[in-house]
Specification:
Blueprint (H helix, E strand, L loop, with lengths): L13 E6 L17 H14 L4 E5 L8 H11 L6 E4 L6 H8 L12 E5 L2 E5 L14 H13 L5 E4 L10 H4 L6 H9 L4 E6 L7 E4 L2 E5 L6 E2 L8 E2 L4 E8 L2 E8 L4 E3 L12
Parallel strand pairs: 1-2, 2-3, 5-6, 6-7, 7-9
Antiparallel strand pairs: 1-12, 4-5, 8-9, 10-11, 12-13, 13-14
Helix pairs in contact: 2-3
Length: 278
C-alpha cells in the first residue's frame, strides 16, 4: 500500500472506492458458503488499481474469524493495492488483532477505531459500530460524542460518514435484528448537522440506496458471498461480488457499481433515489 497522493483543492475531481465484507480467512483451504474470498479479493485488486482512486474505504468484516493469522493474510493480499486504504471494523473483526498486524507500532488496544480525514474539501468520518462478541452493532456514547464534536467543529465542510452496520432497517427481519442497535441516537446526531450528505455502510451484503432527512444512505455488495435482498430468512446468493466507485467534481457526485464479472452500473441520480419512509 502506497502513501497518500496528497490533498486536492476544493472543487477538483476526487475519486474513491467503497469496499466491504471481504471475509478473509488465514487458512487457504477454507471456504465460506462455497466462496474463496481470497481469490475474490485477488480478482478485485487489479480492477481497483485500474480506476486509480485517491483512496479506498473498507467498511468492516475484513476477516471472518477475528484472528491475527487472517489479518496477516489480508495484509499480504492487499500489498498490490496502489491507493491508501482507510479501514473500518465489523462484527467479524477484532480490534486488538487488527492493530497488532496493521499498526504494529501502537499498543494493541481494544478501543474503538475511529478516523476523520479531509480530501478535496470533503470530510470523511469513519465510525466503529462493532459490539464485541455480538453480530449486531452499536455506537457507544463516547463515540457519538466524538461524532458530534467532529461535525460541530467542521460545520462548513460537506461530510460523508461510514460505519459497518446498517443504520436504517432494510426490511429483512433477520438482517434488521443484526443491524445498528441505537439507530435513533445516531440519526439524531446527523439531524443536527445538515452538512452530512452521505452515510455509507456494509454488513448487509447487497446494494441498498435511500434518501432520508436529506441524507443519502448507501450500501455496497460484499467482496465475498451475497445475501438475498428478498428472503426473510438467511439465504446466500450467487450474485457477483463488487464495490462502489464515487467521483466528485465541482460539487457534483456520481456513483458506479463495479462487479467482478466486468459490469459497470451507473447509479441513478439523486432525484431518482427513493425517499425512505419510517
Amino acid at each position: 500500500m502506497t502513501a497518500d497522493r496528497g490533498d486536492r483543492m476544493p472543487g477538483s475531481r476526487l475519486c474513491f472506492l467503497h469496499i466491504s465484507d471481504l471475509h478473509i480467512l488465514g487458512d487457504e483451504g477454507r471456504r465460506q458458503h462455497g466462496a474463496d474470498t481470497a481469490a475474490i479479493l485477488r480478482q478485485a485488486v487489479p480492477l481497483m488499481n485500474a480506476l486509480r482512486p485517491d483512496f479506498i474505504i473498507a467498511s468492516g468484516d475484513l476477516i471472518s474469524d477475528e484472528s491475527e493469522e487472517s489479518y496477516r493474510r489480508l495484509r499480504t493480499l492487499l500489498q498490490p493495492v496502489e491507493a491508501p486504504i482507510h479501514f473500518l471494523l465489523g462484527n467479524h473483526d477484532d480490534r486488538a488483532a487488527f492493530r497488532r498486524v496493521f499498526h504494529p507500532g501502537e499498543p494493541p488496544s481494544a478501543d474503538p477505531l475511529c478516523q476523520a480525514f479531509e480530501r478535496g474539501g470533503i470530510r470523511f468520518l469513519l465510525l466503529d459500530s462493532m459490539l464485541p462478541g455480538k453480530v449486531e452493532g452499536r455506537l457507544a456514547s463516547d463515540q457519538l460524542d466524538w461524532l458530534e464534536g467532529e461535525l460541530a467543529a467542521h460545520s462548513d465542510r460537506p461530510t460523508w460518514v461510514f460505519l459497518h452496520h446498517q443504520p436504517l432497517p432494510i426490511y429483512l427481519r433477520w438482517l434488521d435484528a443484526l443491524g445498528l442497535q441505537n439507530q435513533e441516537e445516531f440519526l439524531e446526531v446527523l439531524a443536527r448537522h445538515p452538512q452530512v450528505e452521505v452515510v455509507g455502510y456494509g454488513h448487509v451484503h447487497q446494494v441498498r440506496r435511500w434518501r432520508y432527512r436529506g441524507v443519502l444512505f448507501v450500501s455496497v455488495p460484499a467482496l465475498a458471498f451475497q445475501f438475498s435482498p428478498l428472503s426473510q430468512e438467511p439465504e446466500i446468493t450467487l450474485e457477483t461480488p463488487g464495490f462502489r466507485r464515487v467521483e466528485i467534481s465541482n460539487g457534483e457526485r456520481r456513483h458506479w457499481l463495479h462487479f467482478l464479472d466486468g459490469r459497470v452500473v451507473p447509479e441513478p441520480p439523486l432525484s431518482a433515489i427513493p425517499i425512505y419512509i419510517r
